[in-house]
Amino acid sequence: MADLPLLDSQRLRALAQHSATVTTNCPCTEPALAAWTSTPLSFPEAQLKDIGTLYVDPYDEPGFAEYHPNGTRYESADAPIAPLYFPYNRCNVAACEVCGRCYLRYTEAGGYFVDRRIRALNQPELIVDAALPG
Description:
With about 130 residues, the chain is mainly β. It has one domain (about 10-125). About 10% of the residues lie in helices and about 20% in strands. The protein is built from one helix and five strands; from the N terminus they run αβββββ. The chain has one helix at about 10-20; strands spanning about 35-40, 50-55, 90-95, 100-110, 115-120. It has a five-stranded antiparallel β-sheet with strand order 1-5-4-3-2. The radius of gyration is 14 Å and the shape is globular. The chain starts with 8 loop residues before the first helix and ends in a 14-residue tail after the last strand. The mean pLDDT is about 95. It comes from Herbaspirillum rhizosphaerae. This is Radical SAM protein.
């Protein structure tokens, strides 16, 4: 993660805006990824290249507080994208090398499993600059 540029909200919005305007047909759009989901086995992960990170400090364990001021939930398609909050604070941003669409990705690790999670980055209006409390 240290070799990826840290993306601020302005750059994240620009990537989301670009991703929202891509009209090219591509296998990466096959699954519905508006909300967080386990990466489908059919998703062409080999087409993705990490282009940035939201992980502020690779030597610090980010928190698990989520940001849902309007009653959304982790799995909501309209949940805000708040970079300082979970799970965004653990994400890299990847771009499809075929069509240019962008995706948020992180690895969920717990108990006895590891799960790669993914969410399309194509709704710039959901990106918020929410500060952590305290």
